[in-house]
Amino acid sequence: QEKSSRLSAALFGEDCEINHDQLYELLKYAALGKCHNATQPSWCHIHHQSHLAGVVVIVLHEMSQLHFYKFYLQFKHLRKLFRHRFTLAPSANFLDSLYGAGANLKPQNTAQGLTCVSSERVPKSSDLQCHPIIRKYGEKKRGLTSYTLTLEEQKKNDYPIKGSPGCKGYIYTECDQQRTDSSPLFGLDCEMCLTAKGNEVTRVSLVDAQGQCLLNELVKPESTVVNYRTRFSGITKKMLLPVKTRLPDIQTRIKKMLPHDAVLVGHSLNSDLQALEMIHPSVIDTSLLFARTEGRRFKLKFLAKAVLGKEIQCEEKLGHDPAEDARAALELAQFFIEQGPAKVAELNLEMLLTTEKLAELSQNKAALEPQGCRVQKQLNEPPHVSKPCFLDCLQVTGQKPLLLGRQELDASGLCQSNLSTSNKQILQRALEDVPLSTFSIIQFSLGPEYIASHLLAGLCEKVRSKLTDMLTIYAGPFEESFCLKSVKKEFGRCGPIRSLTVVTETYQPYVCIQYEVLEAAQLAVESLNGAEVAGSCIKVQRPITAAMLDCEVLIRELELDVENEGMIYVAGLKKSLTETDLQEEFGQLKDLETLFLPKDLQSEKHRNCCFLKFQKSQSAVAALEVINGWTAKGGKLRSRNALASGHLWRWIWQMNHSDGTQGGNILHEKGEQLSESEQDLRKRVKKLDQHIKKLYRSLQSNTLCIVLFPGVN
Q1: pLDDT (tens digit, 9 = 90+) per residue, 401-415?
Q2: Coil, helix or strand for 641?
Q3: What architecture is the 452-545 domain classified under in CATH?
Q4: DSSP structure class, residue 606
Q5: Are strands 54-61 and 703-708 parallel, antiparallel or unpaired?
Q6: Per the CATH hierarchy, to which homologous superfamily does domain 142-339 belong?
Q7: What confidence tens digit (pLDDT) does each residue in 471-489 have?
Q8: Mean pLDDT, rounded, of the chain
Q9: What are the pLDDT digits (tens) for 294-322?
Q10: Can you list the pairs that 105-108 forms with residues at least 24 positions away whose Cβ atoms lie under 8 Å?
Q11: 565-642: what fold?
């Protein structure tokens, strides 16, 4: 509900997918905010979080996005009330991490105070699939070139890039030789002091693949030192007094030392290269190699101890030893390459870090701290089985979360099964109890009788069949000797064509065209029906089947969908045009907010269409009048209101590229049973939609409400 607080997430088409860690980010920040050191989600933004009245998560058990689109018209209120839709990528068990479904995780009272710990240490294979390292690199061992940062990753992580405006005057190492898996590794680390200019290098260390120190040199900074940062750098005023070496001297020496296929290794190496004012094309950054979620990174000191069993950066030493740090980063990279991602993931570094932090808390008499501070370190960890569930952590911070439905919290805070309560009873209790809680999870159930494999396969085949019919048009009749190329060109101006075939069963030839996007098929029906194409006045229509009788109603509802508000579809673009070209072309349109240029998710090639999002609906209407008939760099444009610009665009692509043969066979065998079940299912969905409407309307203003379709698995 949008008043003071609101959620913004500008994701379209292929980007409309999030993982369970990203959803966890959103829930954590919404529930806790800055007062508990939670940070804004990386993929969306909550405006005025402190004004949030509460968070409500509605779980629709046994239902997936298949049900949402199969019963799109029945979900009348759900699709009108909720502005953002995302595919939730598969996870080990997100609901477990949310409220402990299937595992009674309860905070244990200890002499040190309340802590949230699970006894499980070694992750299961199912958990490993969700490990950020496995998601990034896969399980198989790879050579070192698989772990060097791409140019995009370097840009994203503030590495100095050749030709970049901010790197003027930087020295390029000229190590341009092709890297192989046998290219030499070199560890690099610098220590900096704060000067009038900013951070300047005062000590540099370079080690080779055997750990031999090739360079360990003090450097005199150009500007006056403001803060030596001796505690971390180990540098003192006395140490720098006799030093004559300057930054250009070090740059020259490093450049000479590195072979042309050298790979530099370091921990947050971007800061070292920035301080050295040097550019090197091939790097391995151990702070990114040992991947974590939410953009967080392990410290080098922790990794050295947990992975290598080495103590570095000891407190009794004066500052860090850059040679020691460079060697540690190098050995960490070598360990990762030799052992492979699966072995590294099995180390369960997140759990080791949590254990280490809890040990520190114990030593520092953590029982004297406020409960919220003690548990925050667990809340900052991503939701894996080896950690407490989200509701447990909320309780420890002093909040009283509400859990209603299939699982409920008993008086002692344990998650217990409760299968006897009906959806109607759950709704009544929710209407009474949700206003009293700042974080609520309400579970409705479709019923176990609706998850039989033949019913799901039958539903899937029906949805696929209907989508195919909606994407398909028949055009004709044409003359016997008509030019197929001309027909394809004319209909191609409406949008990307997936297939085009000539129908020869009729007295005169027709063509059957299947488009890749709904808008293209609708545009063809609207603009080419009755037009003259290839010398013939033709009729353009969709297939006539029982499932297509409500097609016009469905198209109208899609146009009015909140996801398509202020959004228009434009076709007839040249495939060679880039997003930059289109920004120039359409930049003059009033209130243009976002441009989305679809591409094939397999080939990565752009399509001849795009979507334009406007800040105001009236601006979108005005843009349609301007664009229709407009010629953009060689192509005559056609446009209309968007039908599937966001989540549905991606889902249609997935349906079109998945195998539907099995579903068809099951449907044929079980057709009668499916038809009866589907009628009952339609009624249940309609009832659930009414429940969501009632619950939503009872919420206070500024409540973040999320609906989950977790599916059967």
Answers
A1: 888 987 776 555 555
A2: strand
A3: 2-Layer Sandwich (3.30)
A4: B
A5: parallel
A6: Ribonuclease H-like superfamily/Ribonuclease H (3.30.420.10)
A7: 999 999 999 999 999 999 9
A8: 82
A9: 778 999 999 999 898 888 887 666 678 89
A10: 105/388, 105/389, 105/392, 105/415, 106/392, 106/412, 106/413, 106/414, 107/388, 107/392, 107/395, 107/396, 107/413
A11: Alpha-Beta Plaits (3.30.70)
Residue type, 258: L
Q: Single out the residue of 630, 640, 624, 432 nearest to residue 556, CA to CA.
A: 640
pLDDT bucket at 358, cuts 50 / 70 / 90? low
Q: Which of 476, 473, 474 is nearest to 536 (CA)?
A: 476
- Give the closest residue to 525 by CA, choosing from 512, 541, 514: 541
Of 96-105, 290-299, 343-352, the poorest mean pLDDT is in 96-105
Cα–Cα distances (Å) from 460 to 222, 456, 646, in that order, read 68, 6, 20
Helix (H, G, I), strand (E, B) or coil at 609: strand
CA distances from 580 to 10, 577, 597 (A): 18, 8, 10
Distances, alpha carbon 20 to alpha carbons 27, 407, 418, 500, in Å: 10, 20, 25, 40
Separation in Å, CA 11 to CA 17, 28, 51: 9, 20, 24
Residues of the chain with CATH 3.30.70.330: 452-545, 565-642
Radius of gyration for the chain, computed over Cα atoms and rounded to the nearest angstrom = 30
For residue 394, the model assigns a pLDDT of 74
Prediction pTM value? 0.58
Centre a 10 Å sphere on the Cβ of residue 271 and count the other Cβ atoms it contains.
15
DSSP string of 64-86?
Answer: -HHHHHHTTTT-HHHHHH-----
List the structure tokens of 389.
């569930």
Of the candidates 353, 356, 358, the one whose C-alpha atom is nearest the C-alpha of residue 375 is 358
Six token digits for residue 138: 């896969």
How confident is the model over 573-577, as a mean pLDDT? 84
pLDDT for 562 beyond 80 = yes
For 646, which DSSP code?
S
Residue 395 Ramachandran class (φ > 0 left, ψ -120 to 50 alpha, else beta): alpha
> If you write DSSP's letter for every residue of 393-405 in order, what string do you get?
HHHHTT---EEES
CA distances from residue 118 to 104, 387, 477 in whole angstroms, order as listed: 10, 6, 70
Label residue 44 left, alpha or beta by phi (over 0 means left) and psi (-120 to 50 means alpha). Answer: beta
Asked if 472 and 513 count as a contact pair (C-beta separation under 8 A), the reply is yes
Tens-place pLDDT, residues 111-156: 222 122 222 333 445 557 778 999 899 999 999 999 999 999 999 9
- How far, CA to CA in Å, does 347 sit from each of 232, 352, 384, 489? 29, 8, 14, 57
Tell me the three state secondary structure of residue 198.
Answer: strand
Beta carbons within 8 Å of 141's beta carbon, 6+ residues apart: 337, 339, 340, 341
DSSP conformational letter for 224 = P
